[in-house]
User: Fold this.
Amino acid sequence: MRGQLDNDMGKVLVDGHVLAKYAGSAAVECFGVVGMASVNVKDGIVQLLKRDNIRHGVEVRIENNTLYIAMHIIVAYGVSIMTVAENLVDNVKYRVEEFTGMEVGKIVICVEDVKVVN
Assistant:
């Protein structure tokens, strides 16, 4: 799926993978987020993703040029999940809207694991 930006000079198409990678990069910069998670539904295994595969922890859907984002994250032990989630939504929404010029309709945060961070 691609996002589309129209202006008087033409059209810009942005691939969903690009949007997912950008949103994932913005997410891991937030306090309390250890990283993005890849979930193997069949086995129920959660895996911390490396920076190169960060987009696999993000699902982007585009409807009527509005972005809907689901993020699978791993949070640090001892932080408030609600505070981390609110900060994450605000940061990702702002950064993605500034990056693309498209509206972010909704961001869903799925906390898949908690890790003790030294």
